[in-house]
Specification:
Rossmann fold
């Protein structure tokens, strides 16, 4: 008898990948066996989102699966990223992984890129949230118990005071009309600290808010209760 396909989730630490994980676990169609994450070596943080490694590791423990870290330099040319990710996919395929779950919502060019990079690897990309209306999806996440903090945002698109805010209905109401409710165009990124995909919430402390490379980052540290 053949078991369910083994899958990893492309994990940024944010709300969309976390909800994608929850979605596939709820469906029961896949066996999620890990989280696949890029970490920028210079900062020892999740790439783009800026989440500390200690928080990333606590997320993995709360999910109950190992985190597979792909280390990349800063700055990282695309060919270096693709080579590092290609090696990671080869290792995962050798371990029996045949699916990667992505939290992408509607950007066609991003989906085409992922599909192109997966061709010939023996691993199929999955997009369980694809095409969902994002305001509806954001509301579903919040109502479903997901808790997240805005850890990176583009001050050219939204008020910098929203950095470090909780991803909740009040936050959604304060977004400019041209900002996607899920930040799918890169307007903001989040760090998930609780939700139905975790077996326990993370206890975090807020750190400084800093500017880097044109973006605003709100730091989160891990309190001992989350270990």
């Amino acid at each position: 008898m053949t078991g369910r396909p083994r899958a990893v989730v492309a994990w940024s630490g944010g709300k969309d990948c976390a909800w994608a994980l929850h979605t596939v676990r709820t469906s029961g169609d896949l066996e999620v066996v890990g989280l696949l994450t890029t970490v920028t070596e210079t900062f020892d943080r999740v790439s783009i989102h800026g989440i500390r490694r200690e928080v990333l590791e606590a997320q993995g423990m709360a999910v109950g699966v190992p985190v597979h870290v792909v280390s990349i330099p800063y700055p990282c040319p695309n060919e270096v990223y693709e080579a590092a990710m290609g090696r990671a996919l080869q290792r995962l395929r050798a371990d029996g992984v045949s699916r990667v779950v992505f939290g992408d919502l509607f950007l066609e060019d991003v989906r085409r890129y992922r599909e192109a990079r997966m061709q010939g690897t023996g691993i199929e990309p999955m997009f369980p949230l694809w095409g969902r209306p994002t305001l509806e999806l954001a509301g579903e996440m919040i109502a479903g118990g997901l808790r997240a903090t805005v850890v990176c945002m583009d001050p050219r698109r939204m008020a910098r005071t929203l950095a470090g805010r909780a991803f909740d209905r009040s936050f959604l109401e304060e977004l400019p009309a041209d900002v996607d409710p899920c930040g799918e165009r890169g307007e903001f990124h989040t760090c998930v600290t609780a939700g139905p995909m975790f077996d326990r919430p993370l206890t975090v402390r807020h750190g400084p808010v800093v500017d880097r490379d044109g973006f605003v980052f709100a730091d989160l540290g891990l309190d001992g209760d989350s270990l």
